[in-house]
Amino acid sequence: MKMQDTEWFAEWFDTPYYHTLYKDRDFSEAEGFIDRLVGTLDLKANARVLDLACGKGRHALTLSTYGFQVLGVDLSANSIEAAKKLETDKLKFAVHDMREPLLDQQFDAVFNLFTSFGYFDSLEDNQRVISAIAKMLKPNGLLIIDFMNVHHVLSNLMTKEVKRVDEITFNIQRKFDGKHIYKTIQFDADGKSHSHTERVQALEISDFRALLSASKFEILSSFGNFGLTNYDEASSDRLIIIAQLNSWN
């Protein structure tokens, strides 16, 4: 599916500067989080799993070490090009739009991690993502969503920040318009001035309940951080949801 030129994530995530700014998202962090997640899930060693919006594949790589057959997909062609260097017989990558189901593919579990949801302007696109996931899951399959805890983010919103990474100075501004959290990133690099704005919907757990219920998912548990302690609206850093597709009837 060809993406519209106006969609911010299609452009920003495909630049090398995105990966420079967020280079502190390391493999060791991913390994600890995935290890705890897998410990809570009843997945067989040879289960087929999908890492949806996988970036350069750090979570997908870790998942493959548990014996799972892993496919990582992302909209960013540059990210997938980098991720393909990690491919093995148990780990593959492809460019894909998360709003569309992969044809003739069925998975035991789908992972959507590190706030890789809510990028769109409409709730309808969010529902398209959940619907696509439901179509790709086997009966009673699992969906794991790792999102920000919007309440914690808004109560601690840093409106201005300057980060220096690899000789690039990133000037960052954040704001909330009642529906989206905006993060505008301005910097000079390679002789040019650059500006990109991230826009993520401020989704609460009630929003996810509605989205999931509409596609016949049941939330089994919710956690509030990468250590997988219980979710608390006021204090948790993250909103991590484990849901199951109710397809046994």
Overall number of strands: 11
Q: State the CATH architecture of the largest domain.
A: 3-Layer(aba) Sandwich
CATH superfamily of the largest domain: Vaccinia Virus protein VP39
Output the structural class.
alpha/beta
Placed side by side, the strands forming the largest sheet appear as: 3-2-1-4-5-11-10
Q: Which regions contain 5 or more consecutive residues with pLDDT less than 50?
A: none
Please give the CATH class of the largest domain.
Answer: Alpha Beta
Could you describe the largest sheet, including whether it forms a barrel? 7 strands, mixed
Order of helices and strands: HHHEHEHEEHEHEEEEHEE
Number of domains: 2
The level of helicity is 25-40%
What is the mean pLDDT? 92
What is the helix tally? Answer: 8
Fold-level CATH name of the largest domain: Rossmann fold
